[in-house]
Protein backbone atom coordinates (compact mmCIF):
# COMPACT_ATOMS: atom_id res chain seq x y z
CA UNK A 1 0.00 0.00 0.00
CA UNK A 2 1.29 3.44 -0.95
CA UNK A 3 1.08 5.93 1.93
CA UNK A 4 1.12 9.67 1.43
CA UNK A 5 1.40 12.39 4.03
CA UNK A 6 -1.77 14.48 4.27
CA UNK A 7 0.09 17.68 3.35
CA UNK A 8 0.89 16.20 -0.11
CA UNK A 9 -2.64 15.03 -0.96
CA UNK A 10 -3.79 18.26 -2.65
CA UNK A 11 -0.79 18.07 -4.98
CA UNK A 12 -1.53 14.54 -6.21
CA UNK A 13 -5.27 14.88 -6.75
CA UNK A 14 -6.51 14.88 -10.31
CA UNK A 15 -8.33 17.96 -11.60
CA UNK A 16 -11.71 16.20 -11.18
CA UNK A 17 -10.88 15.20 -7.62
CA UNK A 18 -9.83 18.76 -6.80
CA UNK A 19 -13.12 20.11 -8.22
CA UNK A 20 -15.07 17.53 -6.26
CA UNK A 21 -13.22 18.46 -3.08
CA UNK A 22 -13.92 22.17 -3.64
CA UNK A 23 -17.58 21.40 -4.36
CA UNK A 24 -17.90 19.37 -1.14
CA UNK A 25 -16.27 22.18 0.85
CA UNK A 26 -18.68 24.72 -0.69
CA UNK A 27 -21.70 22.55 0.09
CA UNK A 28 -20.56 21.96 3.68
CA UNK A 29 -19.82 25.66 4.23
CA UNK A 30 -23.29 26.62 2.99
CA UNK A 31 -24.99 23.77 4.89
CA UNK A 32 -26.30 22.14 1.72
CA UNK A 33 -27.07 18.45 2.12
CA UNK A 34 -25.33 15.98 -0.18
CA UNK A 35 -27.81 13.35 -1.34
CA UNK A 36 -26.25 10.00 -2.23
CA UNK A 37 -27.18 8.60 -5.63
CA UNK A 38 -26.29 5.49 -7.58
CA UNK A 39 -23.55 5.66 -10.18
CA UNK A 40 -24.50 6.34 -13.80
CA UNK A 41 -26.67 3.59 -15.16
CA UNK A 42 -27.86 3.34 -18.76
CA UNK A 43 -31.05 1.74 -17.40
CA UNK A 44 -31.85 5.04 -15.73
CA UNK A 45 -30.72 7.40 -18.50
CA UNK A 46 -33.72 8.23 -20.73
CA UNK A 47 -31.54 8.88 -23.76
CA UNK A 48 -30.02 5.40 -23.50
CA UNK A 49 -33.29 3.48 -23.22
CA UNK A 50 -35.62 5.78 -25.17
CA UNK A 51 -34.02 8.23 -27.56
CA UNK A 52 -30.92 6.45 -28.88
CA UNK A 53 -32.71 3.18 -29.77
CA UNK A 54 -35.34 5.13 -31.75
CA UNK A 55 -32.63 7.05 -33.58
CA UNK A 56 -30.63 3.90 -34.31
CA UNK A 57 -33.68 2.20 -35.81
CA UNK A 58 -34.29 5.10 -38.20
CA UNK A 59 -30.63 5.61 -39.15
CA UNK A 60 -29.52 1.95 -39.24
CA UNK A 61 -27.64 0.94 -42.38
CA UNK A 62 -27.48 4.47 -43.78
CA UNK A 63 -24.26 6.10 -44.97
CA UNK A 64 -23.62 9.81 -44.80
CA UNK A 65 -21.06 11.88 -46.66
CA UNK A 66 -21.05 14.93 -44.39
CA UNK A 67 -21.67 15.86 -40.80
CA UNK A 68 -24.44 18.15 -42.02
CA UNK A 69 -26.27 15.15 -43.52
CA UNK A 70 -26.01 13.31 -40.21
CA UNK A 71 -27.32 16.35 -38.36
CA UNK A 72 -30.21 16.83 -40.80
CA UNK A 73 -31.31 13.18 -40.63
CA UNK A 74 -30.97 13.13 -36.86
CA UNK A 75 -33.10 16.27 -36.66
CA UNK A 76 -35.78 14.58 -38.79
CA UNK A 77 -35.91 11.69 -36.31
CA UNK A 78 -36.20 14.12 -33.41
CA UNK A 79 -38.92 16.09 -35.19
CA UNK A 80 -41.22 13.07 -35.55
CA UNK A 81 -41.17 12.27 -31.83
CA UNK A 82 -44.47 13.20 -30.23
CA UNK A 83 -45.38 14.48 -26.80
CA UNK A 84 -46.88 11.04 -26.12
CA UNK A 85 -43.49 9.42 -26.90
CA UNK A 86 -41.86 11.57 -24.24
CA UNK A 87 -44.65 10.98 -21.71
CA UNK A 88 -44.29 7.22 -22.14
CA UNK A 89 -40.51 7.49 -21.82
CA UNK A 90 -40.78 9.34 -18.53
CA UNK A 91 -43.37 6.88 -17.20
CA UNK A 92 -40.97 4.02 -18.03
CA UNK A 93 -38.13 6.01 -16.49
CA UNK A 94 -40.08 6.35 -13.24
CA UNK A 95 -40.80 2.59 -13.18
CA UNK A 96 -37.10 1.90 -13.71
CA UNK A 97 -36.20 4.20 -10.79
CA UNK A 98 -38.66 2.36 -8.54
CA UNK A 99 -37.22 -1.00 -9.59
CA UNK A 100 -33.69 0.28 -8.95
CA UNK A 101 -34.66 1.47 -5.48
CA UNK A 102 -36.35 -1.86 -4.68
CA UNK A 103 -33.28 -3.72 -5.94
CA UNK A 104 -31.10 -1.67 -3.62
CA UNK A 105 -29.12 -0.40 -6.58
CA UNK A 106 -28.23 -3.97 -7.62
CA UNK A 107 -28.32 -5.16 -11.21
CA UNK A 108 -31.62 -6.25 -12.74
CA UNK A 109 -32.77 -6.98 -16.27
CA UNK A 110 -35.74 -5.82 -18.29
CA UNK A 111 -38.73 -3.74 -17.31
CA UNK A 112 -40.25 -6.44 -15.15
CA UNK A 113 -43.37 -6.61 -17.29
CA UNK A 114 -44.76 -3.46 -15.73
Descriptive report:
The protein has 114 residues and is mainly alpha-helical. The protein has a domain at 42-102. Helix content is 59%, strand content 0%. It has helices at residues 9-12, 15-29, 46-59, 67-80, 83-102. The longest helix has 20 residues, at 83-102.
Short description:
The chain is 59% helix and 0% strand. It is mainly α and 114 residues long.
Could you give the topology of this structure?
Elements: H1 9-12, H2 15-29, H3 46-59, H4 67-80, H5 83-102
Helix pairs in contact: 3-4
Key traits:
mainly alpha, disordered N terminus
DSSP helix count? 5
Number of strands: 0
User: CA-to-CA gap between the ends?
Assistant: 48 Å
Q: In which range does the helix fraction lie? A: 55-70%
- Structural category is mainly alpha
Give the low-confidence spans. Answer: 1-10
**Major β-sheet profile:** none
The amount of beta strand, in percent, is under 5%
What is the average per-residue confidence, as pLDDT, rounded to a whole number? 76
Q: What string, H for helix and E for strand, traces the elements in order?
A: HHHHH
Shape: extended
Rg on CA atoms, Å: 21 Å
Amino acid sequence: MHRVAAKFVPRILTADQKHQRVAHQFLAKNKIAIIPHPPYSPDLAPCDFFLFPKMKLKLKGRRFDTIEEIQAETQKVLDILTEKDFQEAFQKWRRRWVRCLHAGGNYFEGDGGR
